[in-house]
Structure formats: structure tokens, C-alpha cells
């Protein structure tokens, strides 16, 4: 790919009165000694959203107890008795809270006797329920009564699982438990990394990970995430034993699962949106100075997305996808915030240092170049979907109402591409009878009858999280999100707020997001396109390496003058045109369509390398492009244009593995691996041999138990490697900083021996609190050693990159 190094007229017209011209921005970028995000310039950090659940009888677990004791439920009973509310809904709600057949309650809170806490842990709780943690005079939060109550003369704490992680860490490292001061200090440092995200527990990187070819690039970041997941599991096992959860009939769990739980989705249709928020929105006790403000923001997000979901119905009508007045309205309470994914942030030492010095890399530079990088990188994201992460999901025939199945896509794709995608999806799902398309009519009993008579089974998609969640807001014609101008995100939020799609106080949702030095403290990008990894070392590591590679390739194009903003124009039609391949890959459709006269010159160059592209017979003026052929062209582009970068990163094997996954999903694609595990869990040969509720339920069981244990085992294997090096004195930093703490933990024993004694009992959840506490301390020491080594490599003492 080549073009004249001079910028085109579109680029030269950029800029306001106080904005530097693009040629000056690019000249400053070219003056840098190396290309940003090249080898040894990259640091990484990750955020994980986990699924929480509490296992137990309905009489012991908080969620059903909270519903039964609520005024909402009591009022519903009275209204149903007087005929004001449907008795059918009451029967379903009563069955939900009283069922003894189901003993898994996703996103339930837990109840803990406060007598089980040490004095320092109780002091931590008192601080966290303050209205402003930086101002004790502000008093307690107005909702503090939600968390502390008395039962049979005992004081209890009622909190989400996300907060239990912090409490367990505080308890396991408290000085009252006889911990060495260094262990207590490490625990206190890491508490801030256990947060919350809407309904889910969220953890963020314990330390900034330097990515280097010598350490396998993405392998280092994947190891840190595996360490964090291991510690998360140990803390919950410890809470179950030491904090008395198991004794009171509760077993708390946290695990990777990308979709809102089936039962929570069903409950969402039975209760009001306000009561749903009361049950599931996280109160933000941990990680925020003013937790109530963050809690109100979470509620705002839920209200906005619920309204936005309703507005999507109007867009579907305007697009000609809904052609009759009969529609199935979405619930007034949207559940998409219960989706869980992983965010991977990459930082550039070069750009961060330039921004810190404010010499040649101003906020205008960062925004102009950053937006262009995002537009380039988005073209490569179809390579990631299903290969490195996935979220398999089953839809029955009766789920194929466009207002349900298409989720937030009406706000992410232009009407033409949305119609094309919907048509291809119906064809993939074989929703035809005698060659004519058939979609559900509305009444559930009729749709089920049609499904049975006509043998319409629906579909199974590759990554439903990318469809069911608002992952990338589409620009408006007047306010492009990525035109390189400072403040464009504010203008877009205002436009979308006026349209009822978004709220101007919320952050713009993008698949690849600029991390601004002035806002976050480093200069880089956040990848938000990952759903569920099957393995840390196999999938996540390669995914991060490829994320770095395509980001560096984008900077190479820009510094060489090969691509400018004018080559990828801004506007909803051009955004939609490139993003349709991402959503097409997520659904699993075979083809997409591109205008033959598209003004996206970068996409034109990619299509020139795409085999079997032909004129569309159905859509005049469009090319018909096979998604897999487009992926192959992306790989060819990386290999040819990024050959020097592949050499730098020593990523030949990574690229080869990706080629194998793309060519044949059975060669390691995550979509295939997850599907294989789910089918083994269900005992079925194909997802279409099961109703959606059974397949999706089997997926949840697989994530909750089988995959959780497999990923926990992966974390243990990495910890064993670390402890082996500690035993052999290969960690020089131990002698300087952590040797006293290590002696206090081990005594005369060897670290690896102690871990192996407990490993089997931990995996089958039969370990006692003392064994779990010992393993927590060993894990903390291993994390501290890696954090110190990373800080030395980064010449930075900061622990967090997110």
C-alpha cells in the first residue's frame, strides 16, 4: 500500500482557530526517535468484569430473601389480590424466589455476621460506608442502612460479592491475624484493585506490565491476569470458610461469563426497572471516594440504555426492518449492563513521556493521531472476533423478533448495512419456508407452534455480547466521533442525548478507545472488544500481541504519510461500512457488502487483496465480500506491511497461529473451544439440538464450574513456576525486600511444597481457612515480586495502568 506522503486537501482543511495543522502534527510525530508501540515501547494493563453468583437454598441466599421482604413484592401481592396486577406474573415471581430446584443465584449479595471480622476489617467497613472517604466529617452514606442490619440479636453485613473480595483480602492480611507487616502492606495496596462494574465484580491490573519480545509480549500481561484470577478465587474460598458464608448456607463464586444469566434475564421481565436497579446495581463501596455518586451514575447508565433500547425500535421501523405495527416491545429494564468482558489498555512510553514534557505532543496531537489510529485499527478487529475471544449464544425461532435479536445494532450501524446484516442473519438461521423468509409473529404460543410445525430452530451466534451490548456508538452527521478534533466526543454526546440514545454525562462507547494522558496519566488505547478467553496463555496472550501489532502498524502508516484522516473519512456511513464486518463476524454471517465507490481508501486497499470479491447481484453498486476472505486479506496486509514489526516482536508464531484459527476454527479458535466445552456439558451433538434455554443454561454451568476450575489450574501452574524460582533463590529482589515476609510465611518449609500440599484441596474446595490464608500469602508475595520487577523495568512505581 502506498500513497504520496503529502496530506490531501481534506487533511489540510482540518483545524480550528487554536488547533495546530495536521502537517505540523505529523512532522512532530515523525521527529520521534522510534515508532510508538514498537518493540520495548509498550506497557499493558487489563480490567476484568466477572460474573458473581451465590449457591444456596432460597431461604439462605440474599437475593430471594431481599425480594420476598421488599415492599415491592408485598405491594405486588396486594395488587394481584385486588386484580390490579396480573396473577400470572405474580406466580412466576413467586416461583422464582421460592424454587428449591434452582440453587444458583447470579449477582446475589451475601450476608455475613460482623462478629467474624477482625477489628481492622470492621474499621475498613466503617470507612467505606462514609459519604466521602476523604472527608470523615461528611458522615455515613444515606443508604448505609442497606448494608448493616440486625437479625436475632446479631449484627450482619449485607454486601455484593465484589466487596466481599476486598473484605476477604483485608481479613487474610490483617495484623490481628498475625500477618507480617509486609504482607499487610501488600494486601492494603491491592485492595484498591477490587472494584465493581454495574452488577459485576471488576478487577484491574495490580501493576503496569512491560511488554517485550524477551517476555513473549502478551504473555506477560496474560500472566498478570491469571495471577489476579487465582487470587480472586482464593479470596472467595477463604471468605466462604473464614467469614462463615458456607456455614450460613452461602457459597460465593466469581468466574468469567460473557452474558447476562438466563434467570436474571427472566427476572428482569417480571419486575420494574427501578426495583431491578435496587437489586442488581452495585452500591460502589470499594474504589470510589464518593461511592453514592458512582452508584447514581450506574443507575443513570441503566436508565439511559433502557430508553435507548426502546428508541432502537423506531430506528428499525425507519430502516424498513419492522414493516408491521405488531412488535414485541423490549422490557423497560435493559439487562445489557450484566454483560462481562475484558478491557486491555496499551500504553506507549514514548508518547507518555512526550505528553508529560508537553514538548511536541499536545492534547491536539494526541487526539488527532489517536482518532486516526482507532479508525485504522477497527478495520482489523474482525480478526479478533471468535478467534481470541467469543460468547456463544443460542436463539430460538421465537427470539428472532428484530427488536430483540438486533439489540443495540440500530445505534451502531447505518440503516442500509443493518438491513443487509439482518437479511444475511435470517438466511444463516434458515428462517425460510419454501424460499420465503419467516419471522415470529408475536404471541409466544403461536411462535412456538410455528417453530415446531415448520422445524425452525433459530441460530447460535459466535459472540452475542458484541450484539447485545452498546459497544460502539455511531457518529451523527454533524458530530463525528473520530475526526481528530479535541472535544468531538462531547459534541457527539450532546447530539445523541438530544436523540434519546445516550446521555452527555456518560463516556462515549467505542471498541477501541483513546486513553488520554491528561485524563488517565498515560497515552495509549483501550481495547474493549474482548468477550471471553478460554485460556490466558493461549488466547489472551496472542490477542494482546496482535493488538499491539496492529496498533504499531497504524502508527507506521501514519508516520510514513500513507494514511491520513482523508483516507478514512468521518461520518456514520463510513463507520458503519467498516464495522459491519465486526458485527458480521460476531453473528457468524458469511458475507458483507461494500459500496463500489466507497470513499474509504484504506478499505479499498484491503478489498484489493480480498479474494472472490464480486459485484453484488442483489445490491446494485455494491461489492459482495466474504468475511473469511476479508480476514485473510487483513492477515496478508499485516504480514506484508508489518513484516518489520513482526520481526521486532518475534511474533511469527503468533501470526501463524492466527492464520490457522481463521482458516479452520477447530485449530484453536476460542469460539470452537467454548462450543466444544458447552456441548460436552449439555451432552448434545449440536447447539441446534437443544432449545435456547437449555444451551445457554449449559453454557452458564460450563463457565461457572468447568472453565473456572480450568483457568484456576492455569493460575496455579504459573504460581508454581514462580515459587520454584523463589525456592531456588533466582529472585534477587526477594533478598532485598521480601525475604523477611517470606521467612514469616514459610518458616523452614519450601514454598512449592506448601502450595502442592494444598493445591488439590483448594481445587475441590475442601481446604480449610488456614491453608487458604497461606496460599493467599504466597500468591501475594509472587505478585509483589513481579510488580517490583515490572516497576523497575518501567522505571515507574505506579501499580495501576487502568
List the main descriptive attributes of the protein structure presented here.
802 residues, alpha+beta, seven-stranded antiparallel sheet, three-stranded antiparallel sheet, disordered C terminus
Which term fits the overall shape? globular
- What value does the Rg take, in angstroms? 27 Å
Mean pLDDT, to the nearest integer, reads 91
Helix content: 40-55%
Strand content: 5-15%
Distance between the termini: 35 Å
Q: Regions with pLDDT < 50 over 5+ consecutive residues?
A: 2-20, 796-802
Secondary structure tally: strands: 20
Counted by DSSP, the helix tally is 31
For the report, how would you describe the main beta sheet?
7 strands, antiparallel
Helix-strand makeup class: alpha+beta
Q: Describe it for me?
A:
The structure is a single chain. The chain starts with 8 loop residues before the first helix and ends in an 8-residue tail after the last helix. Strand 13 (432-433) and strand 14 (436-437) form a beta hairpin. Strands 1, 7, 8, 9, 11, 16 and 17 form a 7-stranded antiparallel β-sheet that branches. A 3-stranded antiparallel β-sheet has the order 3-2-10. It has a 3-stranded antiparallel β-sheet with strand order 4-6-5. The radius of gyration is 27 Å and the shape is globular. It is built from 31 helices and 20 strands. By secondary structure, it is an alpha+beta fold.
